Amino acid sequence: MPASDLNADKKPATAVSRRLALVADDDLSNRLVLGALLKKMGYSVVEAENGAQAIDRFLEARPDIIFMDIMMPVMDGFDATAHIKDLCGDKFVPVIFLTAMTDEKALAHCIEVGGDDFLTKPFSHTLLKSKIHAIERMRDLHREVSMLLEHRQREEEIAEKVFSGAVMAGNVALENLDSLMRPAALFSGDVLLTAYAPSGDLHVLLGDFTGHGLSAALGALPVSELFRTMTAKGFSVDQILNEINRKLFNLLPTGIFMAAQFVRVNHLMDAATVCCCGMPDILITDEAGTAIKATVTSAGLPLGIVPDINYLDTVENLPLDPGDRLLLASDGVTEARSRDGELFGQGRLKQAILEREGGRSIVESITRALDCFCGDAPQDDDISLVEVPFLPGVLRPFELESPARAKAHPAKPSAPAVNHDMLRFAVTLEGPRLLRVDPVPLLINQIQDLEGLKEHRRALFTILSELYVNALDHGVLLLDSSLKARPGGFTEYFTEREKRLQNLTSGYVKIAIQSRLFPNGGDITIRVHDSGPGFDFKSLDMNGNATDILTPSGRGLVLVRELCESLSFEEPGNRATAVYSWTDD
């Protein structure tokens, strides 16, 4: 086939290429013959007499294809080719060896040092042309793939910025949490989410999707949306996990799921609710980091594997002391490998915590140990660490946004001139349903949807939550709150609470809510009635103040009284009525 026909069949990428060839051979006649043939094929030609000169010519001219003799003075073709291939980096510059050698080991060495093909001398011009055309197709495909990869990388970088904004931008308290997020690819399959609940508790979720990269990160968007929405509405840890599990099961393909560690930090920093599902152990250390006080092992399946799981049984309530530190970690930490393939492991993780030096944080100490252990070994999985310190003032205190906080006796809104703008609704939970349903977030969301009292959400959540918990724990379950004050009493209290809830067959809590809107404000009356025997409410010390409430002794009914215009009880003490009012300034 004529050369013109060959050129007509080429792809546009080849037609617009420079087509510059480098011929390296110590024999002048060989250079002249090969150069003439290449010029007929449309190539410009630069020449070199030895390997060292070939390297210099490559750096000067940057050819598209190289023809390399093996036996040359100063530097042979093997060494020259290996050096040139190093200089090429990711760019594909084909090298064809031209040699009179027929030894199989020598020819194999041509490929080992970076050669892409070889021809034994003497060779036919027809075969040489065929080799060149084949190499050109490879080169053009390589260029096309490189362009596609660059385009994909640019799109992924843009998507990663959007993704990070959607998933990470809504996090809170990050300045107070020491963390390390080290993805194995541009997109991380690990996700860190934080948000404040209406009560002021801090929710922290560390999730680890199977694999890494874009496919692993797809589930992070719905998870972050559900996590923040349900946290803002006051749902509990197990309720949030239940809903995320259902969402991921319905959304993600088989084989992709999310292991998770979830922590709810009481804003008084005296307790945490913890759940671990398919992740490494959650570790709790003392302030000095000299002892691991508690270990929370995985107690539930990762999220998204089966449609219906109740994560209530996997949740633990842990008492905490000021200065305690809680460490969350993905399996990318314990499964990190050294150059020899050895795993970092849980043992080295604990050792890095207990042997940290100077003023290093736990995360800094583990990161240093990881880097020393892994060296330059490739990272196989995303690595994530989060340290939650329980230190006074580290987690910013939650302040209720309520007029009652600003004024000792808030002005009562004036009554409407014509008709009451009133809303009433009620709910009753009986027997086993008290275990399965938390009515507080449902009722608060109902109030907000119908009345739009967003700025009063936190105060109303606290009032309703305290009244409901008081009715359930002390009225229906007959728990004694003084149990928490004993050594180990906190854990004992919640263990007994869970036991009594599981065995509950009778009893009830009734909640009735009335809301009135006035021209200059409004009020909400909350009535809670339980089936318990009541208590001596006349002996209650209601003279506490907000400062006392924010101590670890608890907030309870004194806090409700502080927030409300009034708090009253009816005989025998199992009926409470709270009136919360506000004015529109």
Describe the structure.
The structure is a single chain. The chain is α+β, with helices and mostly antiparallel strands and 585 residues long. It folds into three domains: 3-145, Rossmann fold; 168-329 and 382-389, Phosphatase 2c, domain 1, CATH 3.60.40.10; 403-583, Heat Shock Protein 90. 38% of the residues lie in helices and 22% in strands. The chain has helices at 3-8, 12-15, 28-40, 51-61, 77-88, 104-112, 125-167, 214-217, 220-232, 237-251, 331-334, 345-354, 362-374, 403-406, 433-436, 439-451, 457-476, 489-502, 546-549, 556-563, and strands at 20-24, 44-48, 65-69, 95-99, 117-120, 178-182, 190-196, 202-209, 258-265, 271-277, 282-285, 292-296, 316-319, 325-329, 383-389, 421-430, 508-518, 521-530, 566-570, 575-583. The chain has a five-stranded parallel beta sheet, sandwiched between helices. A five-stranded antiparallel beta sheet has the order 6-15-14-11-12. Strand 9 and strand 10 form a beta hairpin. Helix 9 (220-232) packs antiparallel against helix 10 (237-251). Residues 1-17, 400-410 and 546-554 have low confidence and may be disordered.
Helical amount: 25-40%
Distance between the termini: 91 Å
Low-confidence stretches: 1-17, 400-410, 546-554
Spatial strand sequence of the major β-sheet: 2-1-3-4-5
Largest sheet: 5 strands, parallel
CATH architecture of the largest domain: 2-Layer Sandwich
Number of domains: 3
Rg of Cα set: 36 Å
Write the CATH homologous superfamily of the largest domain. Histidine kinase-like ATPase, C-terminal domain
